Amino acid sequence: MGFRYIVEHMEEDEETSKAIPKWVELEYMHMRTLAGSDAHVHFTHLSTSSCRTLTDLFSSSTGHGIAQATAESKPILELMQGLSIPMEKVCLLDPKAEKAISPEDGDGRFECFLFGVRDDPPRDRTSELRVLGFPTRHLGPVQMTTDTALGVTKLVVHDKIPLSEIPYIDHPTIVFNPKESVEMPFRYIIENGEPKLPPGMREHLHEDLNKSFDF
Ligand SMILES: C[S@@+](CC[C@H](N)C(=O)[O-])C[C@H]1O[C@@H](n2cnc3c(N)ncnc32)[C@H](O)[C@@H]1O
Questions:
Q1: Is 53 helix (H, G, I), strand (E, B) or coil?
Q2: Does the beta carbon of 130 sit less than 6 angstroms from any atom of ligand 1?
Q3: Which of 5, 90, 114, 174 would suit a FRET pair with 153, their CA atoms being 20 to 30 Å apart?
């Protein structure tokens, strides 16, 4: 059994009836690929409707090389109780942690790696998880998207690549055409000279840009 990656949904505007935003859906789908086939990704603290949407999406997209995934309305502590996972086996990825993540953190010390979901403008939402008392690790000084944070953690703890050897790009500008572009306020893994975005994210960002000019 590989690692468990837990993504606690922390968006404030989440009501029970509200569907998850498209960008969250795209990031969540990307995390299954980034986590790899021997992993399990748990998406916790979701509304009932988001659980339904994601469960349908997960069952319709199975394939080689992707992690098992489950969407649940339970928050993290209830999930851990149900799976009998003790607090000290869960590592919270926290930008304010004292220690950076290292390949040794994948040698049995931890069973699970826990992430919050981004919010923009950046506020310290990870603090809501920090107060629960998990051991913590950081991923460097620049804020990453949650899918990037999960992907980088996997490269370090599973593939044993030191944090400093992963190629990054900070705050990239995504250019759609000579007149339209958008700057992303995060750090990404760089692959073939491009930031590694979730499939479909580029198109989604472009549509979103057009929508905001649609008076
Ligand atoms: C986009 S970040 C959320 C940022 C948000 N402003 C906060 O700190 O609460 C989403 C998650 O990715 C992880 N993350 C992103 N960048 C990180 C970094 N440099 N070090 C550690 N964790 C990071 C954390 O688990 C964080 O909760």
A1: helix
A2: no
A3: 174
Task: In whole angstroms, give the CA distance from residue 97 to residue 161.
Answer: 20
Number of domains present in the structure of the chain: 1
CATH number at residue 18: 3.40.1280.30
> What secondary structure does DSSP assign to 143-166, as a single string?
-B-HHHHHHHHHHHHTT---GGGS
Is 93's C-beta closer than 6 angstroms to any atom of ligand 1?
yes
pLDDT in tens, 88-117: 999 999 999 999 999 999 999 999 999 987
Domain membership of residue 188 (yes or no) is: no
Residue from 9, 43, 93 to probe ligand 1 pocket by mutation (most atoms less than 8 Å from CB): 93
Distance from the CA of 123 to the center of ligand 1, in angstroms?
A: 10
- Ligand 1 centroid to residue 180 C-alpha, Å: 28
Q: What is the pTM of this model?
A: 0.92
Q: Which two tokens stand for residue 152?
A: 């980088």
Residue having the nearest C-alpha atom to atom 2 of ligand 1: 118
Please tell me if the CB atom of residue 185 comes closer than 6 angstroms to any atom of ligand 1.
Answer: no
Q: What is the pLDDT of residues 153-205, one digit of tens each?
A: 999 999 999 999 999 999 999 999 999 999 999 999 999 999 999 999 999 99
Tally Cβ neighbours within 10 Å of residue 178. 6
